[in-house]
Amino acid sequence: MYTFGFLKRPEQQWFLVAVLVILSLLTFERFATLRPYHNQRISQLQLLFRALAVWSTFSLFIAKLLQPSLFNGGLELWLLGIPLVLGMVFFKRETHLKILLQGLANFSQGEDITYQIDCLLAVIRVKETTGDRNAEIALKGYIYTHEETCPNIQCHLKQYKRNMIQLNIIKNRRRAGMGTQNIV
Questions:
Q1: Is the pTM of this model over 0.70?
Q2: Half-sphere exposure of residue 30, counting CA atoms within 13 Å on the CB side?
Q3: What is the pLDDT averaged over residues 160-171?
Q4: CB 151 within 8 Å of CB 70
């Protein structure tokens, strides 16, 4: 964490606690939005460490706030909150719909596009490993949105969509007994 050895007097402790809370919140928010690691496990572990740092500084703030009333439960408060933080980090539902359905022209930084690609890979991973219907719908929505916003005629996603449409036409004609003639 951060150390401020020169802030040892009791009247400066509030400043130290405020700085710790603000900096831990900023690092957690920045890490949670950027996700700098591409490995999902490493990223989740780092997010857990950041969340524990936020909980630690928040517990410190509560203990400091209740210090005049002779509150002695700071350690217990911190220990009781750790399972809650673990649960919130590990069981957090990943929703990438907002960032996936944003067109590439709407991004202002390269980091935003990298984050969108990470979100897309996470949705593909969920679809392949669990067969989640919501992930499949999100993936199709991303493909259709990308098709509408991408100016590149040779775009791979546009070609993928055309291939999927042709495969669906072939399947429907085979079911209807029409064969595979006259396919565009």
A1: no
A2: 6
A3: 81
A4: no
